[in-house]
Amino acid sequence: MHKQYLYILLFLFISSKSFAQIGGTYTYSFLEITNSARLAALGGKNISLKTDDLNFVYDNPATLDTAMSSQLVLNYLNYFAGINYGYLAYAKNFEKAGMFAAGLNYINYGKFIKADETGKITGEFSAFELAVNIFWSRELIDSTLSVGLNLKPIYSQMETYSSFGLALDAGLNYQNKKGLSAGFVIRNLGTQLKPYTKGNYEKIPLNIQLGISQKLAHAPFRFSVLYQYINQWDLTYNKADNIAFSAVEPTQTEIEEYKIGIVDNFFRHFIFGLEFVPSKNFNLIFGYNHQRRKELMIVEKPGLVGFSWGFYINIKKIKISFGQAFYHLAGASNHFSVNYNLSEVYRKR
After folding, report:
1. Whole-angstrom Cα distance, residue 286 to residue 304?
2. If residue 92 lies in a helix (H) or strand (E), which one and from where to where?
3. Rounded to whole angstroms, how far apart are CA atoms 229 and 227?
4. How many CB atoms lie within 10 A of CB 263?
5. What φ, ψ does residue 13 adopt, rounded to 5°?
6. Is the confidence at residue 219, as pLDDT, over 60?
7. Which of 131-135, 217-221, 244-248, 254-258 has the lowest mean pLDDT?
8. What's the pLDDT band for 252 if we cut at 50, 70, 90?
9. Comparing C-alpha atoms, which of 203, 278, 340, 285 is closest to residue 34?
10. 334 pLDDT higher than 50
11. What is the distance between the alpha carbons of residues 41 and 320, in angstroms, rounded to a whole number?
12. For 265, which of 4, 6, 162, 323 is 20 to 30 Å away at the CA?
């Protein structure tokens, strides 16, 4: 009984705090949390842009470019309910082998009250997860087409239960001289190697994506569109299927509330981004995530749920970004990112 209650508690907490999870049906859901400020401002994900920002490689390893060599990125997210998330990465160019980068994303869920099946408090326990990211990319057709991979060993610790898994991201990126860029990614292709309990293997959040970005020729604007979950058409969050409600029979009214139409379901696959780019040293960014809005807004007071914004500033080889994403009327997530080009820093000394 103690194991069952513990798992229900952890499941509810993790699935409710990780966006883009359909009905809480996956483990390692932290892999889908936005890793950086600029991506958070763009709506949460972007696989088409190939910039000099190493953070974008997390969404599409094919965007790893020689311009990112010797770049170090540090990100921090003060998430909801005391959850802390961090990401760091470093890139290096090896001319014959291609571009390589290494990264680490880590999430700490904080402290939980531990109780037995009678409700008696017996202490506290903690929960955290991390993934190592090993990136590689190289050009296939000069700088027009590139391919990339990201191998991710994953570790999760929930109280006394631990799990180990392995996942792979594979991506393509296309660029032309007219400001058009496109990306295709298969994210989180993998499995648990060691489940939390013997024989109970859970799914990893597979997400196949297609994205496109276009910079206007005569105006300082860039548009991005991402279509996610190509591998899953129905993005309905079905309350009746959630383990949290398994002990209560849903009413017909509740079932009807969670039904969505074809058009609504179609747009839940999309994330839209807009950038105002007056110079290479400053970007003002906006985004909209329809799935997030529909799943997390309060119908009577939708507010800005699903929308996001942020900015990017390049100051003396140090790039600073801020992104704010609105998840609920209760609050928004605030992302901070810092990029250092170590070769430039040391060159000036």
Report:
1. 12
2. strand 84-94
3. 7
4. 8
5. -65, -50
6. yes
7. 244-248
8. low
9. 285
10. yes
11. 13
12. 323
Closest CA to 74 of 300, 319, 332: 319
DSSP sequence for 132-199: EEEEEEEEEETTTEEEEEEEEEEEEEETTEEEEEEEEEEEEEEE-TTSEEEEEEEEEEEEEEE-SSTT
Q: Please, are residues 94 and 104 in contact by the beta-carbon 8 Å criterion?
A: no
The residue among 325, 344, 314 whose CA lies nearest residue 51 is 314
d(CA 318, CA 116): 50
Whole-number Cα distances in Å, 304 to 36, 155, 323: 20, 34, 14
**Phi-psi category of residue 340: left, alpha or beta, with phi > 0 → left and psi -120 to 50 → alpha:** beta
Contact 282, 314 (CB under 8 A): yes
Reported residue count of the chain is: 349
CA–CA distance, 127 with 12 (Å, rounded to integer): 13
Coil, strand or helix: which one is 232?
Answer: coil
What's the CA gap between 304 and 326, in Å, rounded? 6
Sort 142 into a burial class: Cβ within 10 Å, 0-12 / 13-18 / 19+.
exposed
pLDDT at 238: 56
**Whether residue 5 has pLDDT greater than 60:** no
How distant, in Å, are the alpha carbons of 12, 110, 112 from that of 159? 15, 11, 9
CATH 2.60.40 fits 2-347, yes or no: no
Domain layout of the chain by residue ranges? 2-347
CA 39/CA 51 separation, integer angstroms:
12
Greater model confidence, 73 or 19: 73
pLDDT interval class at 244 (50, 70, 90): very low
The DSSP output letter for 213 is E
pLDDT tops 70 at residue 258: no
Confidence of residue 251 (pLDDT cuts 50, 70, 90): low
